[in-house]
Amino acid sequence: MSVKYIDEYRDGRLAGVFAAQIAEAVHPERAYRFMEFCGGHTHAISRFGIADLLPANVRMIHGPGCPVCVLPVGRIDMAIQLARRPDVTLCTYGDLMRVPGSRGASLLKAKAAGADIRMVYSTLDALRIAEAEPSREVVFFAIGFETTTPPTALAIRRAAARGLANFSVFCNHVLTPSAIRAILESPGEAGGMRVDGFIGPSHVSTVIGTEPYDFAARTFGKPVVVTGFEPVDVMQAILMLIRQLNEGRCEVENQYVRAVTRTGNRIAQAEIAEVFEPRDSFEWRGLGEIPRSGLRLKPAYAAFDAERRFALQGITGRDNPACECGEILRGEKRPADCKLFGTACTPDTPMGACMVSSEGACAAHWTYGRFRDLARRVA
Amino acid sequence: MSVRTHRGLDLRNGRIDLSHGSGGRAMAQLIADIFHAALDNPWLRRGNDQAAFEVAAGRMVMTTDAYVVSPLFFPGGDIGSLAVHGTINDVAVGGARPLYLSASFIIEEGFPLADLKRIADSMGAAARGAGVPVVTGDTKVVERGKADGVFITTTGVGVLPAGLDLSAEKARPGDRVILSGTIGDHGVAIMSKRQNLSFETDLVSDSAPLHDLAAAMVDAGREGLRVMRDPTRGGLAATLNELAHQARIGFRLSEEAVPVKPEVAGACELLGLDPLHVANEGKLVAVVSPQAVGPVLAAMRAHPLGRDASIIGEAIEDDHSFVQMTTAFGGGRMVDWLSGEQLPRIC
């Protein structure tokens, strides 16, 4: 097996070409602050060392687009509570196992204490377990943005079609545009004008299109460029944002024309709309309650909704008070600004969610970029 | 009176039962028909509880390793050959010549005798191929559910050439880092056969005994060969971080110089892994003085297991013991230890 056409998008010479164009385009007297919303971009920027290819006055701010990172403590506590039920088998993606809940609890610890928690790679794995073990209540711990929502919808519809009575979903799907709006409406943003433009994730836009970001450009005057996850894509998107600002334009542009359209994937959107509806409000770690930013199952699929099925009460968990994940997720602080970073909090002993997922801003910085903090301190 | 002992083991359909671990005739027959048959050598033939052998003059090395790999059979090897190669390699990277192995088996009730024979035969072939016999062993049987098929522990002893003392703290800034070949082959070959993960690939594990290659490097490098390691669990990243911490130095690598097969790169891309964290079972990394680089590299490339050997980076002064890498894209990044669990039971 081989993945073709990847090396072209990681080509060092092409990177050099874009780096030169960016260096030429920037106005030396102004600062450019761009937020890459998505953790996948944060990871790519760190892993390929993109910061080294940008002029000093172009700064990338890591956004909250990591579904593991923004999951509030209370939802982890609810999942642990669910997993401790003797009749329940909780199926989860591996990244969620180590996310700290309240008082140091985690799914990993609950599993060690006897809870039936199984790591799966897709929703369909959970469906297979439910079919193979009819005596177990199989619950899929669903998280993610618009990219992972259609597969969850599909699994629920498949379960309904097969009359699978022992399968349900603990739904934590969230919506990208709502979070960008919340960042733009946050007081820090209005007063400080921290972000000059956004890099939007291409995989989300393959589903929703680029249209849902129009408000950012029209209402808030922030340009958006939707782009892919290869480093050449990211470099080109940065150049496109710089050019928009220099030319006084403010648009939603699509760098990822190889898969993204303005209106997105109508079939996937219909799949989501069939099964899910927006919640009035959903809590995001670091951002707080955001109206109409999360999804839940529609009444027609209530039987597959783990929250209704097991009458789960909402839990309000408490973050470690010293943890600055909130400021970091809003782009107000850098990972190294947090007192816990690299001391109490490392990827092996995560205190905050940004350190758990490899897409979290703190984990990416710790894993790939912390040598730069020393250089910064010396300079 | 039982006639079973004369009938022989049913190697086609038979299964391990608790009597095979009870110390009685069934156990004796299992050992004779499967283990002695596969591993045959003068020490085992004497049938004692221990193997007696002459002790070489000088310093000896000893190492032990437990093998719990899942699945037991994978492209390019199985738990038997892996248990021979892995322990030989732990002796060899110290610069020692491996002499003897011991093997102990923990077998789960119900395990097919045909599979056990296949594993023992593979172990015998690996030991003969490497010229390192398994001279003593042990078998235990545990109830169904208390193990997963079979677990094997092997111990190896070897002898060091006079005066040789390879050690991480001998590495110093300016030394070069040499890698014997492509990384990630073993880990990806195992993953390709995992339930829920299975994907099509022609890739095979690189599991191989490295003692000949290591001996050639010792001869060629002499004082300039500072330290050797085999980057198994945690991959090249873990090995280089360990060396950096022990030697209180840093490393700077070039991503373009690290050989990765396209199949491995593709699978890692798909699974969200970094090839630098993926396990190897037939690769060797060495820190070598600038003067010794030429001869060591030439000796490696002359050996089939070191054909693709290349310089991947150098040791630098760094109080923080960071492993840094210039990416093929032109930026800089750290190469950190893997955090959390990538994939359990890879070896």
Summary tags:
heterodimer, A: 379 residues, alpha/beta, Rossmann fold, five-stranded parallel β-sheet, B: alpha+beta, 60s Ribosomal Protein L30, Chain: A, Phosphoribosyl-aminoimidazole Synthetase, Chain A, domain 2, seven-stranded mixed β-sheet, four-stranded mixed β-sheet, 10 helices, 22% strand, globular
Task: Give the helices and strands, then pairings.
The complex is a heterodimer of chains A (379) and B (347).
Chain A: H1 12-25, E1 32-38, H2 39-47, E2 58-65, H3 67-70, H4 73-83, E3 88-92, H5 107-112, E4 116-119, H6 123-132, E5 137-144, H7 149-162, E6 167-173, H8 176-185, H9 187-192, E7 197-201, H10 202-208, H11 214-218, E8 224-227, H12 231-246, E9 252-254, H13 266-275, E10 276-278, E11 281-284, E12 288-291, E13 295-297, H14 306-309, H15 325-329, H16 361-369, H17 371-378
Parallel strand pairs in A: 1-2, 1-7, 3-4, 3-5, 5-6, 7-8, 8-9
Antiparallel strand pairs in A: 10-13, 11-12
Chain B: H1 4-7, H2 25-39, H3 42-45, E1 60-67, E2 73-74, E3 77-78, H4 79-92, E4 97-108, H5 113-130, E5 134-142, E6 150-159, E7 176-179, H6 185-191, H7 211-221, E8 225-229, H8 235-247, E9 250-254, H9 262-271, E10 285-288, H10 293-301, E11 310-316, E12 323-326, E13 332-334
Parallel strand pairs in B: 4-5, 9-12
Antiparallel strand pairs in B: 1-6, 2-3, 4-6, 7-10, 7-11, 8-10, 9-11, 12-13
Helix pairs in contact in B: 2-5, 4-5, 4-7, 7-10
| Poorly predicted runs of chain B | 1-6
Count, helices of chain B? 10
Ends apart, CA distance between termini of chain B: 43 Å
The largest chain-to-chain contact, stated as pair and per-chain residue counts, equals: A-B, 36 and 31 residues
Order of helices and strands of chain B: HHHEEEHEHEEEHHEHEHEHEEE
Q: What report would you give on this structure?
A:
The complex is a heterodimer of chains A (379) and B (347). Chain A is an alpha/beta fold. Chain A folds into three domains: 129 residues, HypD, alpha/beta domain 1 (Rossmann fold); 152 residues, HypD, alpha/beta domain 2 (Rossmann fold, 3-Layer(aba) Sandwich), CATH 3.40.50; 45 residues, no CATH class. Chain A has 17 helices and 13 strands. In chain A, the strands form four sheets. A five-stranded parallel beta sheet of chain A has the order 2-1-7-8-9, with helices on both faces. In chain A, strand 5, helix 7 and strand 6 form a beta-alpha-beta unit. In chain A, helix 1 packs parallel to helix 12, helix 2 runs parallel beside helix 16 and helix 7 packs across helix 13. The N and C termini of chain A lie far apart (46 Å). The mean pLDDT of chain A is 91. Chain B has 347 residues and is of the alpha+beta class. Chain B folds into two domains: 142 residues, PurM-like, N-terminal domain (60s Ribosomal Protein L30, Chain: A), CATH 3.30.1330.10; 167 residues, Alpha-Beta Complex (Phosphoribosyl-aminoimidazole Synthetase, Chain A, domain 2), CATH 3.90.650. Helices cover 30% and strands 22% of the residues of chain B. Chain B has ten helices and 13 strands. Chain B has a seven-stranded mixed beta sheet. A four-stranded mixed beta sheet of chain B has the order 1-6-4-5. In chain B, strands 2-3 form a two-stranded antiparallel ribbon. In chain B, a hairpin with a 5-residue loop joins strand 12 and strand 13. In chain B, helix 4 runs parallel beside helix 7 and helix 7 runs antiparallel to helix 10. The longest helix of chain B is centred in the middle third of the chain and has 18 residues. The N terminus of chain B is likely disordered.
